[in-house]
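TA notes. Do not distribute before section.
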Amino acid sequence: MTADGQIGEEAGTTTSGWCDPRFSRVREVFDGHFAGGEELGAAFAVYLDGEPVVDLWGGVADRHTGRAWQEHTPALAYSCTKAVTATAGLLLAERGLLDVAAPVSDLWPEFGRRGKERITVEHLFTHQAGLPVIEEPVPVEEFEDHPAIAARLAAQEPIWEPGTAHGYHALTYGFLLGEVIRRVSGKSVGEIVAAEIAGPLGLELWLGAPDEVAARAARLSAGKRAKPKDAGGGGGAGASGAAGLSGAFEASGGSGAGELPAPAETDAGAGAPSTAARLPGQGPGDPIYEMAKASLDKDSLMNRALGNPPVHKLPGGGNHPVILRAGWPAMGVVTTARGLAGFYRELTAGRILRPETLRDAMRRRVHGPDRVLFIDSSFGLGYMRPALTFLTPARGAETAFGHTGMGGFLGLGDVEHGLAMGYTMNKMADAVSGSMRAHRLAEAVYDALT
């Protein structure tokens, strides 16, 4: 089970890499995903106490050309970016350049109007600012102009009173926190990551991919987007406890639905009886039901948060060179599984942030129903903590931190258990039924610990 060239026989897919014998079950799970047709191409890397114990890859990086997924194939890992951006901000806080408790307007005067005067930097880290949506459509010409997009948010009113609730700022998180970081440091988040994190530590991780990296990146393939007629399809989000809940979150874009989608063409509205009957969950009022219903409503807060800037207007969506190059601080990181796991290895070892900084950043600031996603989410200072939106095995329920990425990507660290994991792939999870691939792999890792 540890040799190179293992075969997923049903799919005829060769997987490569290595596993420590203690983690042979991880290899079985990884190969099983290919054998079952759940993967096109993927990679998974794990460090235990700083040492590599899992390093696997396989399949195809581009289904159109048949290009193989290689050892160093990177991929756009979507919202795994948020943890990297948070770390850049926390570096500045460690140096006394950024006060997390300070009003944003102290650093960004134009922001302090229209009900945003009391929004703090911590509110940005914890998705409490009430600004999950950019109200005016962002033109494609502005996609690489981060300050211009941030200025649009500075002109808006919050959707809810800041600090009173939290809701996933799927795209705006990066433009908001990124602008604060730029004003404090004079650098973009991508520049800080390159100069102070990825570069010095030799990580295969870029926030703003160079042309040669973009050229060899995996091409993402979107999963199905649910429609009313099949909204309750097999394995739906409410079908089987935690697995179903993970699938529902993936519908939101937090960890899976395909390329950042255009808002749903279908307006579920109140939901025709035939549609409502097939939605997962227990009916109106149930978070899973409400989340699935929102995913079908083009005007829902969820779809509005995911749909602007409108990545779907670019040919290939997230595969377009503009997106790979732009380095959006909420969803633009391009990385290998090894690079993502290496980021958490360095973070948990205290080589990026001081241990006390990380411990404080991991402390849960918010937990409970998410105003955008409906189901429970939990955040420290930018890092996801275990909740329905960040499912972790039982042994990591109080110790794991990290971030998912749309489609099924996962970056996870666990200081107490000495773990660091990174999972990348290119077959994006289906909209409602979702994917449990990363969770199964993480579960196999935790199960191997003695």
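Switch to the second chain here.
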Amino acid sequence: MTAFQPVRGTRDLIGDDFRRMHHVAETARRVSALYGFEEWSTPIFEDTRVFSRGLGDTSDVVSKEMYTFEDRGGDSVTLRPEATAGLCRALVSNGLTQTNLPRKIFYTGPMFRYERPQKGRYRQFHQIDIEVMGAAEPLADAEVIACGWHVLQELGISDGTVLEVNTLGDAASREAYRAALVAYFTSHRDALSQDSRLRLEKNPQRILDSKDDGDRAIVAGAPTIDPYLTPDAAAFYGSVEKHLARFGVPFRRNPRIVRGLDYYSHTAFEFVTDRLGAQGTVMGGGRYNGLVEEMGGPATPCVGWAAGMERLSLLLEDGGRTPAAPRPVAVIPVGDGAEGAALDLLQALRQAGVVAEVAYRGNLKRRMERANRIGARAALILGDDEIAAGVAQLRDLDAGTQESVPLAEVPGRLA
């Protein structure tokens, strides 16, 4: 019989792989709490319209990558391809759009996209995500960026990672800039790729993000948004840069960062690295001031970012920063009569916060071999003589030393 394997684009997280992913999530959870973010959890699947409205019917995610199916009740549901749209839906459906704003939200969990698997990218992948919903001020943009930089620092992977920032301007800025891009790219239309010709009709800003070599040569001469910024939009972006400097977050301007949907505005940013090959973005986000309205709520300014946990984990692995597995204490009863006392000691250790294990079977030699296999830092040996004397033999498996310790003192010695 052929053994089953994980579905293509998925993987099992075991050992070091799981510890790295867990470390990423816990670090982000801890750091975001310092900034006042509270954790939310939303369903793993939603009404398909949540994502078709939130991501745009013509986006690659909606048209090519979503896991969408009809349930037994005839409703179209989709496994979430990202977190933000579901969080905006939750804000509206739980009646939170008018109370206690802004809401500062932290989120982590699996996402699903049917795309070509590659290094650090899977069809079931995991994200961490923070959002500030209900704040229109540029300080909110700077603070979410600062939180992201803080997460990368705490993970020890900020070296070699660069923050790139751009402004998308306000509605008037984007309208004027769009006209300038249409004029420029129309003059080069015959040299554009087929995809970029389609984008020219629908969303010319997306051409700036083209990976086609021919397009990139044309994009190099395209106008930037700066001459088309309104005074308000320019002042907004200037405040973001000023706040980033105060937060101590290094950055560089990248006028080619774009977003594909009209409700994105003002700040757009990415943390990029050259340590992951061509796919170098590890965290990205920006301001979106119309998505809550798409979910049926009132106009609500929002800003946030998402980061792929698999890519952050790869950076941990590349930097030799895989968290070590906890080293347990092995409790070893010698003889059937010692098992009860050994179990009492085992639970006393666990109550004291000590990771402790007991082998289910085997003589002293085999139990000691298991203690070494699991990387135990110490072994506690209990036989009839030790029980009669009210002690355990504490063997330091690193130093190779051994001493008798009163049973009541053992948890305190090892905690």
